[in-house]
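Researcher: Going back to the complex we discussed earlier. I've cleaned up the inputs and rechecked each line, so this should be the final set. Can you rerun the prediction on the complete assembly and write out the structure?
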Amino acid sequence: MNGTMNLLIGLAMGLSLVALASSRLPSVIRAAAFQGMILGTLPLLLEETFHGLVVAVAIGTILVKGFIIPNLLRRALRAANIDREVEPLLGFVPSLLLGAAATIGAAALASELPLRPEHARSLLVPGAFATVVCGFILLIARTKAISQVCGYLILENGIYLFGLLLINTTPLLVEAGILLDLTVAVFVIGIIVDRIQREFDTLDTRKLNSLRE
Amino acid sequence: MTPGWLLLIAGVGLVTGIFSAFKSPRAWLAVTLVGAVAAFAAAVWMLASGAVWDWQPDFVIGGEMLHLQLDGISAFFLVLLSVLGGAGTLYSSEYWNDKNHPASAPPGRAWWNGLLLNMGFVLLCANGLHFLIVWEIFTVCAYFLVSLERQRREARAAGWLYLAASHVAMICLFAFFALLAARTGSWELGPMREHSGLASLFWLALVGFGIKAGIFPLHIWLPSAHANAPSHVSAIMSGMAIKMGIYGLVRFTGWLPAPDSAGWVVATLGVISAVLGVAFALGQHDLKRLLAYHSVENIGIILIGLGFAMIAASHGNPVWGQLALAGALLHVWNHGLFKALLFLGAGSVLHATGTREMSRLGGLWRAMPWTASLFALGATAITGLPPLNGFVSEWLIYLGLFDAVSAHGPAAYAAICAAVFLGVTGALALACFVKVCGVVFLGLPRGKIAEHVHECGWRMRLPMLVLGAACVAIGLAPILFWPALATAAATWQPALAGANILPSAPLVALGAFHLALAALVILAAIFLWRRVQCNGVSRAGTWDCGYAAPTPRMQYTAGSFAGIITGWFAWILRPEQHAHLPKEIFPARSDFAEHTPETVLESVIEPAGSLVMRVSAAVRRLQHGRVQSYIFYLLLGLAALAILAVMGGAK
Amino acid sequence: MTIALDIFLRLAVWLLLAPLLPGIINKVKAWVAGRRGPPVLQLYFDLAKLWRKGVVLSTAVSPMHILGPAMAWVAIIAAALLLPVGPAGASLSFRGDALLFVYLLAFARFCIALAALDTGSAFEGMGVAREVSYAVLAEAAIITALLTLCVQSGSVSLATMLAPSAGAGAALLAAGLFGVLLAENCRVPFDDPNTHLELTMIHEVMVLDHSGPPLAAILHGASLKLLIFAVLLTEAVLPLGKLSLLQAIGALVALVFVVAIVIGLVESLLARLAFRRVPLLLTTAFLFCLFALLVAWKGGMP
Amino acid sequence: MKEIFLIAIPLLAAGAAFAWPGERTRPWLLPAAGGLHAMLALWLLVNPPVLAADAWFGFDPLARAVLPMVSLLFFVCSIYGVAYLQIRPERKNRIFVTALLVMLGLLSLALQAQNLGLLWVAAEATTLVTVPLLHFNGTARAFEASWKYLLIGGTGIALSLLGSFCLGYASLHSGGNGNLNFTALVAQGASLTRPWLITAWVLLLAGYGTKMGLAPMHTWKPDAYGEAPGMVGALLAGGTTTMAFVAILRVKQVVDAAGAGAMTERTLLAFGLFSMLVAALFLLGTPDFKRMLAYSSVEHMGILAVGAALGGAGIWAALFHVWTNGLTKGALFLSAGNIRRAAGAQTDDKVAGMAWRSPASARIFVVGILAVTAFPPFGVFFSELKIILATFQTNNTFAATAFLGCLLFAFFGMTRLVFAIVDGRPRAAARKTNERFPELPGIIVPPLLFLALSLWLGLATPSLLREAWTAAARLLIPTP
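Model: Rerun complete. Updated structure for the full complex:
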């Protein structure tokens, strides 16, 4: 069980690096979506017995993170007729190196933190931290609004991964909160992206700096 | 009728004045004057009886019980406040009336009453929190009064500078009172001399109150505020508002223990303020700015007295300390009276001519004999010349200093310096006021402005007469005012209460001498006048050594007059000169102009300010609108937080 | 009643003797220059003549032009009354009168200066500017001198301050006070009372426009001031308190006479200083007084 | 269970507003719901209900100490809102009114939440519901502001979720049963696993600090406050930030109970002072008077953080400051909104002489600035004085010095800008139109009400409130 999980988490970590290295927006979106789907299946692996609510969470996550949001993003991409190139503030290679460094750092940090015996051999904690940091790098190092949304998605994925630690004990309200909020957040972001497009004729957030000192 | 009721009448009068300020100027005038008279009566009552009026109603404001107290020191200052307040009220009813200033006169009246009311409350408050509250409200009222002419850029700038400097003072007082409350566990004020942990708080009080008082390096706000305010406001600011700083220092040096070096520092600051204040005054060409610098000078004189009184108090109560204290306190009154008189006179000149530039005035005595003679009286008084009041207080301080010297105590060396500098200050002030009186009122009118002047009306003249009469009265009969002085001095440090210092300062003899001198001066003047009339008078132009066509423009100007002395002080005055001197055989038009900058403000404060602004500009560039960087800042904050959390052994 | 008589008599002596001093000085100057010179009593004649003369007033002046000299004259007389005459003491004496004495002279200066500025003439402005500026330094010197006397005697009353012997610093104090005397009374090397080049004068230029009785008041006041300073100098240096009354008065008169002669000699032998050197000389006088103070301080240490 | 109506009333009203057909009558729902809410909140303030032991939300002492302020703030703003929406008929108000009411409901929920998870959900939902409020004006600048608000605020709120998980794991690791109720967490006390606890604190402080606007996470604030309508700014500055502050206080309670009080105090003090410093530096030079209010808000958040770092007396003073700052800011934002409309611009190179163009608003603005810069007798003076007193009582002389220095520079910056806008000659373009901005009672009375409230809070702090703050402080710092 743990082996499969670690494999999937490793895959998810790899996908964040893929997102960092992608030079085209659709592949970034695809990486994020695939990562979301992988994470969606994890709750099923955690439980010995299939709890109804857990199944619902898993299906919901897969649907939202894997299909709805990527579709929304693709729609925005098409509707706005955006140039599909990712314009990085920080080059791909440095981003990738940073992402790798972050992964190693996250693993190191995770080994500092005490874990319960059942989590001790799992990649959950380092995976979560690494994904969060990769999300941050995408948020900081990319100029296009859509790639930032993807960064934010990856960040949320990392947090979700971490939340799996608590899935047994905490009421699922927290998880439901993520799904709900994430959906609405991206929905709103989508609208705004749409509006930005209309107002500024570009999705380049570098143009969004009329509010300044 | 008890002091409490009188104070109530005063308060009610001033408050109703605020409300009637907008509707009925006459009602305002009446109730405000009634308030001033009532406050005066209450203060005189307390000074005469030597008792303390203490009122603690069951009434909470801001979480603290109201506690008002009128003791010797506060009554002493309240007398001055009520006299100047009353005089300024009457004066402003003509000077700043609705006809000339339709927009600013009504709010001006309201702020005026607010100022008087809150200064009165500062004197009465015996609770630190309430002291701070009314102190700040009085500052704000003064700010709105200084910048009453809001359409003038200089008035606004002067007002802001005042507000900013006052806020620095406020911050110091914030810290002072909060520390006091934290260390004593209560906001109640009162004597706590044995609480030796409070001594170091003196420095905060010195800066806080010192800014208000206009001690030399902290005086930066004072010249422009006094120059740009309406003259009745300048009078109350210079006569009373800066004295509130002195009140604070006197009050808290009396109530709290002071560090050993406090007296020395105060006296040193006093000497610096006195000499440099008058030096800067000499460099001014703006009548009101010049008077403003004399406030710095006189605050210096007061501080010399106070400083030596503190030194004496820390060395066990020698009589010379009491002399210095009495001199300082009397100088508070005196300076309030003659400075207000001078500012009101300057206001009258400004009212008549529309300019404060001395180089455009001259020969005003013809059109404004009352103003000219009352101004001359004030000038004589502020120069500290007998037989007027300025001399009496300086004389007391001198006696204290001389006794300190002959006592051969540790303060003797300092007293030598202080006495010599006090003498120098007196001589410089004399030079300065000869210049003012001569340039503004004597000689011939310098420009067209001075040709259409008119004397002010009785409502402006009467306050000046009252103030002038007070100056003369204190000068001629100082002994009458001695009980008030003794009560206030005894309240400062009860240890000083026992000794009678009149043998060391024979005020009766001095008063008699002054009286005789005044009588003789008048007699001699009349005698000589009649002799001249008897011998016959013929009129001719001023003899100009043979020059055929003298014009008023050839008169000595204020700048040339002060040139010798400002040359001695050029190291600090740093005058800016613009000269086109005649060169050729047939010289072209030439001119020479000299301007004395605000050295402390322009060479210290402004560079420091622009440094801060450069830092601010650099930091503000970080908010450049790029959201990526903003998220990066967030990450940096997170990292800093993590380091901070792990630091300090959070294992 | 006796006090009134006392005051009256002293007043008469002061007023009558004062104009003698300039006469002596002029005689000495004439003698050094090999001239016969004006009579010693010349100033008396001048004053009498001026007192009877009519007055020419500038069209610019205010009443201050006439009142000023009168007030200054009274102030100088009042100062004279505070000054003790040897062991006879002063008619009016109280603690702190030394300071009153200094400030009375300042008051006189104030009045004369205003009366001068009244004419609106550039020359008189110049003179007043110089007068009040140099007075600053003279004031510092004279306050220091008073402090010296105060340290020596432990008193702040002229009558007792001037009684004891001057002690070790006498010579220094004499030098300092002599400098102040020359400056305050506008003698060479600070000023030249005889010159008629307006640009170079201090005191004389201030009274250019005065005439008749006011001028008489000014001249008489000036001579009285000179006498006051001479007496002050003498008493500050000489231990008059130790002598009997007659001896003391004799010594006083003799020394005042000597002072007058020295002034005359100085005026004959020295040239007037350039104006920018004047502060230097006055500072020197101040320093003499200060050193005298330090000497007295050390001497007075218990 | 009356406290549930604090949440239900606004949400029901929001539903009604969404369905309401009349564009002109819909705004009246705001004061109606706001008034009911305020009455209920005040009633609960006077009669605090007993809190059920395991309740997910409830009117506990901390909610009692701050919620009535938010309610009052909303009520007065809603009065303003009616007049404001009437003078802006060109914008459809369905979403605006609905979102405002939802926001009130969510704020009531978040302030009452007794569970870490529920608190987070409410906070996140508040973030989302703010977005339509921010771009009510529909300008390009408003969209930019909303975008930044959402991205930075979203990141912050994500961090706080991660922090919540860490705290949950700390509880789980030390043998807890996964109950994230604050009482349960506090009960675990020192047994909470230390490294997770610290990680949780760092993330939660950064996350809710972003929401609150502590530097350097404050960057969304000037943009959002600068572009939002005045009343939204007031609600953000007085309501949302209060919610974030309360969240931090609640977490601090848990971390303190676990014995890491020194760390929470150190970090809060450092971030509080840093925020004040940054705000002071920005205030010195900013030319835009609405952004100025945002920096002032950053400064006051710093003050709150400093207060929270100073133990019981400090927390008491900070709760006091929540009231005084929130209500005084209300007057400032509303009058600044009026001035902004009257002038048509918001920087000092375009705006001057507003004392003539909109005299009442300009006067309220000046008085409000003096009030917010701690001039007595307004409330902020008293609360800041209490905080300074607390710094001295805890011997934090350095903190006191830095605190006072920052106050001073902030004062310089703010008065400079405000007087430049209020006084002076109106700019040439503005002079040409020469018409006065119609200052209807509906947009003048609410800010005046705020000033009156601020005055009343300072001069005559009701003993009821004092007692409520004391109870809250005692809840957070049990040992005095």
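Model: Worth noting: The beta strands of chain B are 53-55, 60-61, 64-65, 68-70, 537-540, 576-580, 591-595.
Researcher: Good, that matches what I expected from the previous run.
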